[in-house]
Specification:
Layout (H helix, E strand, L loop, with lengths): L2 H8 L17 E2 L4 H6 L5 E2 L2 E7 L6 H14 L3 E5 L7 H6 L7 E4 L4 H13 L3 E6 L6 H14 L2 E7 L11 E8 L3 E8 L8 E5 L14 E2 L9
Parallel strand pairs: 3-7, 3-8, 4-5, 4-6, 5-11, 6-7
Antiparallel strand pairs: 1-2, 8-9, 9-10
Helix pairs in contact: 5-6
Organism: Marinobacter oulmenensis
Protein name: Cell division inhibitor SulA
InterPro entries: ImuA_translesion, P-loop_NTPase, UCP037290
């Protein structure tokens, strides 16, 4: 087998239906949960690609799921954007978890067009490490547009969407279905992942994590930003 073909087959974007377990290469960030990373082939959150967390209600542990990555990105000097969160992050809890608050920015947009424009610019910004976004309704063409922006920015983007969107096709590289489990756990079904079959499951304990989704914020800005044209 040629070196070029070997390299192509190791790329996570090349799906090999006859091989369930294969060594693949894909820029990614560890989730901070070994059980989940194991189910994701040791990769974690993909960089330069969209990830979707699909859930029925907020507050079941979805923020705790991204907390290790948030801490790592903010601690390295990269900006962590929260776009239209359903509740404002609680700054003292984030600080107790070791998140560098100076690198956390919360943005609330006025309508769907502003949301899409702001999210795309966050994804393309060289200062961005992580974008957490609650988009509401998105057309398929909008998701593809965001995927291209994420590829350009080479950062991590997690979209929190309603669970019924699992029935729709999506260009997102990773799709996780989130459901509450016993004893404040979080049950995760992997609906889609690059380079391998979906269907893996795991349950994570979240009882030790802080409640970070209540009413206080380190810094709030409203997009679009002054001096920037669409």
């Amino acid at each position: 087998m040629s070196e070029l073909l070997t390299t192509l087959l190791q790329d996570a974007r090349v799906w090999q239906g006859h091989r369930q377990h294969t060594t693949i290469t894909q820029p990614a960030e560890a989730t901070g949960y070994q059980a989940l990373d194991n189910q994701l082939g040791g990769l974690g959150w993909p960089r330069g690609a969209l990830s979707e967390c699909l859930l029925d209600v907020c507050g079941i542990g979805e923020l705790q799921l991204v907390l290790p990555l948030m801490k790592r990105m903010a601690g390295s000097g990269r900006t962590v954007f929260w776009l239209n969160p359903p509740s404002t992050p609680y700054a003292p809890a984030l600080a107790r978890e070791g998140v560098e608050l100076d690198n956390v920015v919360v943005i609330h947009t006025s309508d769907a067009a502003d949301f899409l424009w702001t999210l795309e610019n966050c994804l393309r910004s060289p200062v961005t490490g992580l974008v957490l976004a609650w988009p509401g309704k998105l057309a398929s063409r909008d998701v593809r547009r965001l995927q291209l922006a994420s590829e350009a920015g080479h950062n991590v983007c997690v979209l929190f969407r309603e669970r019924h969107h699992a029935e729709q096709n999506s260009p997102a590289a990773l799709r996780l279905e989130l459901m509450p489990a016993d004893q404040q756990g979080l049950r995760i079904n992997i609906l889609k992942r690059r380079g391998s079959w979906p269907g893996q499951r795991c349950t994570l304990a979240m009882a030790h994590r802080a409640d970070i989704g209540v009413q206080e914020s380190p810094r709030v800005v409203s997009g679009p930003w002054p001096g920037t044209s669409r």
